[in-house]
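Course assignment 3, question 2. Fill in each field.
Student: A.L.
Task: Predict the tertiary structure for the chain below.
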Amino acid sequence: MSLVRRRKVPENERTQVPDPNPDGNEKDKKIIDNKNEIQKSQKQQSKWNCVDSCCWFIGCTCVVWWVLLFLYNMMPSSFPQYMTEVITGPMPDPPGVKLQKEGLKAKHPVVFVPGIVTAGLELWEGHQCADGLFRKRLWGGTFGEVYKRPLCWVEHMSLDNETGLDPPGIRVRPVTGLVAADYFAPGYFVWAVLIANLARIGYEEKTMYMASYDWRLSFQNTEVRDKSLSRIKSNIELMVATNGGNKAVIIPHSMGVLYFLHFMKWVEAPAPMGGGGGPDWCAKHIRTVVNIGGPFLGVPKAVSGLFSAEARDIAVARAIAPGVLDTDLFHIQTLQHIMKMTRTWDSTMSMIPKGGDAIWGGLDWTPEEGYVPSKRRQRNNVTNEDEKTESKVKRVNYGRIISFGKDVAEAHSSEIERIDFRDAVKGSNVANHTCRDVWTEYHDMGFGGIKAIAEYKTYTAGDILDLLQFVAPKMMERGSAHFSYGIADNLEDPKYQHYKYWSNPLETMLPNAPDMEIFSMYGVGIPTERAYVYRLTPAAECYIPFQIDTSADDEGRCLKDGVFTIDGDETVPVLSAGFMNAKGWRGKTRFNPSGIPTYIREYDHAPPSSLLEGRGTQSGAHVDIMGNFALIEDIMRIAAGAKGEELGGDLVYSDIFKWSEKIKLPL
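Answer field:
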């Protein structure tokens, strides 16, 4: 059947029929035009996409933020305190106000010694990428350059991997004055609260000195490069001479405790290695050393940081968002960049655990054996007496600082088959094509060396040095020239006159200053990292082969997110902060031949009761304790002339004395 198609009339052949109603046609055109405009607007609305939504969200957030900021600046300065008192009850007077009412006055000059990462560093010379940053802070403050030019920032914050000093063409130096460490970042205090309270009883800049130094360097190198130790010596001598001969009260915090321990040996040692002050310099110039959160015997956290550039918080973040930290996304700082940078900081090696298995425990024993975490009831921010858990806690092998697998961490040592890694052939890895400027010594180990590390299964404090020597030989070569981690057999041996031993309290003697006092003040009641469960990660180019296994959990063994915890201040375990004052230096010992009195003051952690209270006034956390009213009051009384017995002697909540007795150390 054929189909007939109708021919389409060409445009030029079409006849136009005249419109019989031209007025009506114009009205129709207007209606059609209105419809077209409506349709166009609807189409434009339908083109709204996620970018527009994001812009609106950011805009609304900014508007709300500025409105809140405006309202905050308009409110009276006493309003936050008023609201806090409405919620929690009347706030106690700050220690400065309280002691001012009691009539306390400034007496001894005060020296602050900041710890690692809490003091500011500024740029004095840099490469082209750092133009415009002369004398701007690279560390501390707003950290703006981290976000603007992260790789340039990493380059300038790193030290030379061979010498541990400045790389060619770069000079980063410590900020000086009280502003060097009063605030770590805007609104985040370190020393500011203590300084403000001391000012209440008459202290000012001529009677307070911030002994700032470049905390990245080894302790002796701060003198070699910057003469930092000499500056501390000169300032203490000046302050004592200009304050009626009153000796100085020294207040080190965190790693600053080890730094000042090194200083006390350096200042009395003969030149050129030492400061040439003579054997009685400390006795003449130092009244009291008040150590806050001191890692005297090191911290396990330093091991995980050097081994895999992580601790519990980083491991948890890595598990939540692995793509951000494990890849070089948008050239931002990754763990590889962080590892490359921090492994050039020799100071980190000062906090590797000291004393080996004799202090930290072996495969099947630990001084903290039987530790039961406390359950505290908080009401109105007041901590009640500890209530020990009734259930029997499971055995925890804290001596195994690193274990590959949860089963290895829990098994008896007789059930663990270990293959020694020390003589293992490291093998070879594929060529470095994608790492660009990111370098880690794991890349030089090869797959054979990585496998050997995992096959050793578990590492105690006695194995850690060999482990780090195997995975980071360049770092440990520098570290072994500046630090030591053993226990001295004979402190009269001339070898202990070398500066590498001066920051290890187990390999050096305190100065001959029987009138001096030494306090160890630290927080307790916070789960603190003590040991780790690790796993191997899948092989990839430019990767860190070991990670904390965040899937490992056991509440009965204080294991969470792959980390075994113990009592401490969240960074330093009680054992490290308290052992020397509890036993090693208590009375006349070979480490304290003149019998300098020692005291322990523990501060039981109580978190803030509300957000309005900020970081709290009863915190025992490693940095937040610097705002603890009880600690500040104790320090102020010491600065005003009080002795340890007048403060009430020891104040202890933990089992530090019990644990110390389990350590069989010849004294």
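Instructor remarks: The radius of gyration is 32 Å. The chain has two domains: 102-120+175-295+505-525+569-667, 300-352+355-372+393-490+527-565.
Grade: pending
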